[in-house]
From TrEMBL:
GO MF annotation: an example: DNA-binding transcription factor activity
Classification via InterPro entries: AraC_XylS_family_regulators, Cupin_2, Homeodomain-like_sf, HTH_AraC, HTH_AraC-typ_CS, RmlC-like_jellyroll, RmlC_Cupin_sf, Tscrpt_reg_AraC-type_HTH
PROSITE patterns reported for this sequence: HTH_ARAC_FAMILY_1, HTH_ARAC_FAMILY_2
Protein name: Helix-turn-helix domain-containing protein
Record keywords, A-Z: DNA-binding, Transcription, Transcription regulation
PANTHER family noted in UniProt: HTH-TYPE TRANSCRIPTIONAL ACTIVATOR RHAS-RELATED
Keyword match Transcription regulation: yes
Domain HTH araC/xylS-type: 185-283
SMART domains the UniProt entry points to: HTH_ARAC
Species of provenance: Candidatus Fimadaptatus faecigallinarum
Coiled coil: none
């Protein structure tokens, strides 16, 4: 679907048909396929996504927090979460329709080297790690926008364009830097799993198995962030979810995600989200994205 030459010749654009954010506990989804393409993002926990292309053996993809998978239309797949384990996922499903806003797929391909590369790659599924955290922000913007104002067509188009570009960039970086990315992914995964307790570059490097200096250089080159900056970002993103989903005080949330003081937490939070924790909680509780069950959008016949 996304790679069809007809889609580019006819001025098509993705239209979101369904989306959700859900926490699974010991889940085993039946093997299935659908006419939508989709991006599945692991916000927390671990899971396995099995992909079974036509005429091929199944591929099992273990995924943890910060990992994602893109599935083109009609690719058979299933999600499983072991035993009593938990996994929170964000999912966006889309098909193609005639463009109504400011972009077409052809224009995006012409203007974005990363997306042009992604289309040329032509893979029906891709697995990667969102090391920069930008794919999560893009998916969050799409889902939050649909929850609050579905009539802002130009803004929805811009948000989808960013999602496709960030998806393409994350896939490209993962494939073009496989050796270095392995160390960076291990470091990022360890940080996501351990961010609520004190962490240092020394501890992360020891876990990954390379020197502190080498890890610091690789991590900065691939993510644009220091280890300390990445730890803070993971803590802040976790705090953002707690602000929306829990009744914990700001002070308690700061302590739970690993900050020493409420003041330190407030400064770091505002730097990333542009709002104080209290302001963010008030604003985002008007739309409950983290608690959204699967929503299927309906459009007029022939639209």
């Amino acid at each position: 679907m996304l790679y069809s030459s007809e889609a580019y010749a006819r001025g098509m654009w993705p239209r979101v048909n369904a989306y959700y954010s859900k926490t699974y506990l010991g889940y085993d989804m039946p093997l299935h396929w659908h006419v939508n393409a989709e991006v599945m993002y692991v916000f927390s926990g671990e899971c396995v996504v099995d992909v079974e292309p036509d005429g091929e053996a199944a591929f099992a993809h273990p995924m943890r927090a910060g990992d994602f998978i893109f599935l083109n239309a009609r690719v058979r797949h299933r999600l499983s979460v072991d035993g009593d384990a938990q996994c929170t996922m964000l999912n966006v499903e889309f098909t193609l329709a005639p463009a109504e806003g400011m972009f077409t797929l052809a224009q995006l391909r012409a203007g974005s080297p990363d997306y042009a590369w992604f289309v040329a790659l032509g893979r029906d599924w891709c697995v990667g790690s969102d090391l920069r955290g930008e794919l999560f922000k893009a998916m969050d913007a799409v889902v939050s926008g649909l929850e609050t104002d579905r009539d802002a067509t130009a803004l929805r188009h811009a948000e989808m364009a960013i999602l496709l570009m960030q998806l393409s960039r994350a896939v490209r970086e993962g494939l073009q830097k496989p050796g270095a990315t392995l160390y960076v992914r291990r470091a990022a995964g360890f940080i996501r799993q351990s961010h609520t307790r004190p962490l240092s570059l020394k501890q992360v490097a020891a876990k990954v198995g390379i020197s502190q200096g080498h890890l610091a250089r690789l991590f900065r080159a691939e993510t644009g962030q220091t280890i300390a900056g990445y730890i803070a970002r993971v803590r802040i993103d976790h705090a953002a979810v707690l602000l929306e989903r829990s009744r914990l005080s700001v002070t308690d949330i700061a302590a739970q995600v690993g900050f020493n003081t409420r003041q330190q937490f407030g400064v770091a939070f505002k730097r990333r989200y542009g709002l104080t924790p209290g302001e963010y909680r008030i604003k985002r509780r008007s739309n409950s994205y983290p608690q959204v069950q699967r929503r299927v959008l309906e459009y007029p016949p022939g639209d």
